[in-house]
Amino acid sequence: MPVPELSTRAQYLLKALTERYIRDGQPVGSRTLAREAGLKLSPATIRNVIADLEELGLVTSPHTSAGRVPTVQGYRLFVDTLLSVQPLEHELLDELELNLGGETDSRELVETASNLLSDVTHLAGLVTIPRREHASLQRVEFLPLSEHKILAILVISDTEVQNCILNMDRAYSAAELQQFSTFLNEQFAGKEIHAVRNTLVSELRETRENLNRMMATAMDMADRVLGEAEQGSDYVLAGQANLMEFNELCNVTTLRHLFEAFNEKRQILNLLDQCVESEGVQIFIGEESGYQMLDECSLVTAPYTVDGQVLG
Description:
Blueprint: H1 8-24, H2 30-37, H3 43-55, E1 59-60, E2 69-70, H4 72-82, H5 90-100, H6 106-121, E3 125-128, E4 139-146, E5 149-157, E6 160-167, H7 174-188, H8 193-206, H9 213-230, E7 235-238, H10 252-264, H11 266-276, E8 282-285, E9 298-301, E10 305-306, E11 309-310
Antiparallel strand pairs: 1-2, 3-7, 4-5, 5-6, 8-9, 10-11
Helix pairs in contact: 1-3, 1-4, 2-3, 7-9, 8-9
């Protein structure tokens, strides 16, 4: 859709109306806008300008109010041409770096990032778990926890370690577990996790009868550990309750559909997967996302990288 050409006055009023509506969530009338904009214009003059904006499809009037609210097209024009973004203060940047710098487990790091994002924006913060397509296995270790429980430690990099607990059908000694770890590390250290998993699945299916008991057990345990590490592009969500503060989302049905989408995850993950392939910040306003459950929301996305590689 071509961007309509607006006079400076119309741009200023659209900006003021949009900012007021974002802040209060209530339709904005001409008298309110006259005070908000700080222009020496009569309410009648403002009404004429707003009528022009409405004719261009940039604002609309809800049935229950004489005030106006921005449309998706109005929001898009505001974001693309009228919005001025200020850099974060150094103190806040230092605080973010401090909070994110101490984690080594990828899941805990993502949880921290999601909570920080929610705290800073006062909205819902969502961060995807790092993708595993190109992650390599440095080593795997197994430690006994109790008679039938084993702690599996998966070292992916110097800064990323994942743990999971395996429930076993019998007890294993520390010496046996060390033997399993040594065998797996000799076979697979340095290889991509996805390739290791494929190899394990193939060999366990086709050559299990030719493997000795130790090798078969070690490979079966590794398959279970890597299966957990590879499980989908999941995400961590924080601050959902913040969304209930907005009048646009106070409808119970709208909130229920949105929270169901958060829980079901598939559609949101599809959208986020598309964003990972694009550079920089992307903003989806209402129906622009292509998913009906997000029609009343906006989604701002940006990929994150580690050592120059996009992971989520």
